[in-house]
Known about the structure:
The chain is mainly alpha-helical. The protein has one domain (39-164). It is built from 4 helices and no strands. The protein has helices at residues 4-11, 23-60, 70-109, 115-164. It is elongated and about 80 Å long.
Amino acid sequence: xxxDCFQRRRAEGVIKMTNTVPDNEQHRLNLISEHSASVxxxxxxxxxxxxxxxxxxxxxxxxxxxxxxxxMLFLAMMFWCVSFFAGIRNRLxxxxxxxxxxxxxEAKLSNNPNASxxxxxxxxxxxxxxxxxxxxxxxxxxxxxxxxxxLALWRLWEVLDEFSK
Length: 165
C-alpha cells in the first residue's frame, strides 16, 4: 500500500509510472533519479556561489591599497577557483557514470555471449567513477568553505587594521 505523499507526488507527475516496469523497480529508479537531480542542483549551487564569491572578491581588490590583508582575499579567490573546478570535474564524472550505465543496459539487451562479463566490467568502471565523483564533491565543498573563511578573515583583518590606526 502506497503512502499519501507517494500517491500525491504520482498524481502531480513528479513520480511517473509505466506499465512496462514493476512498481517497486520504477520506484527505485525514481528515487535514484531524484537523488541524482538533487546532487546535481547542489553542485551547481556551489559552483554559482563560488563564482559569485570570486566576482565579489575581484571587486574588492584595490591595487593602491595593497597590504598583507589582501593575501587572505587572494587566498579566498584561489579556494573559490578550486571549488568551481571541482564542481566541473564532479559533473563530468557524473555524466561518465550515466554513460557507463547506458552501456551496461545496452550490453544486457544485446545477444552478446560476453554481456555478463562486459556488464561487470562497466559496473566496476562506474564504481571507480563514483568514488572519484565523491572525492571531487568533497573537494568542492571544502574549498568553498575555506574560501568563505578566508574572506571572513580578510574582512576581520581589515577591520582590525582600521581600529589600530
